[in-house]
Amino acid sequence: MDNLKVLIVGANGQIGKHLVSFIQDSDRLEARAMIRNQEQASFFENLGAETVVVDLEGDIESIAKAAEGVDAIVFTAGSGPHTGKDKTIMVDLDGAVKTIEAAKVAGVKRFIMISSFDTRREAILAASPSFAPYVVAKYYADEWLRGTDLDYTIIHPGALTNDEGTNLIQAGFDLEIGEIPREDVASVIVASLENDITIGKEFQVLGGTKAVNDAIQSI
Q1: Of 154, 168, 164, the residue nearest 198 (C-alpha)
Q2: How many domains are contained in the chain?
Q3: N or C: which end of the chain has fewer CB within 10 A?
């Protein structure tokens, strides 16, 4: 059986780099890293991963071309905490929606979205003025994805840290906010790609006590 080829949008981000590395170590998956410029390519080429240079602020067609021939797309791009509301709209909302539309154009059914911990209306109202635009962007991107017929999974990680991954998490909904290493979020994405049980599901993930695969199986 051929490996599942996965386009990682936002590959040069911190979660993205862990994810590409894990995918390249997997027997069942193969990565295509979507990056913004050629200077970012060497990290991924050293892992044996394919790269494609596309600006997420460009058009749907260029993203769709990057997705040609893949079996799944993971959206893990983010504008980052140090940009303004304009970039939040352009990347976290418009970039996400364009990637969803590009998946349809390219005929890619499987789509995994990395969202914010809680994107419900109550979370928007409770967010600080600086964080609220990000939650709003993620809210509408998630809504757009739910309204498609794609085989989607929406992952809502807690506060991200650069701690070493433990491969131990808790997954569910209505969890109390906590932390999770970015490396463990990448492990959750791999497990979600490898488990069809996650199709049509969304869940929160935090550091915990259950092995990633066991936690994903019990969603």
Answers
A1: 154
A2: 1
A3: N
What are the tokens at 204?
């929160």
Residue 70: which CATH number? 3.40.50.720
Q: Are 219 and 49 in contact (CB under 8 A)?
A: no
Burial class (CB in 10 A: 0-12, 13-18, 19+), 131: middle
| Domain-located, residue 68 | yes
Residue 66 covered by a domain: yes
Asked, for residue 210, whether it belongs to a domain, the answer is: no
DSSP 39: G
Q: For residue 185, is it within any domain?
A: no
Cβ atoms 73, 145 nearer than 8 A: no
Contact 108, 71 (CB under 8 A): yes
Instruction: Decide: helix, strand or coil at residue 140.
Output: helix
Give the C-alpha separation, 34 to 47, whole Å.
14
Q: Residue 77's domain spans which residues?
A: 4-157
Vertex 181: Cα angle to 93 and 78 (nearest 5): 15
DSSP state of 196: G
* From 134, 139, 140, 152, the catalytic residue: 134
> Looking up tokens 């970012």, which residue turns up?
40
| pTM, two decimal places | 0.96
Active site residue 140: no
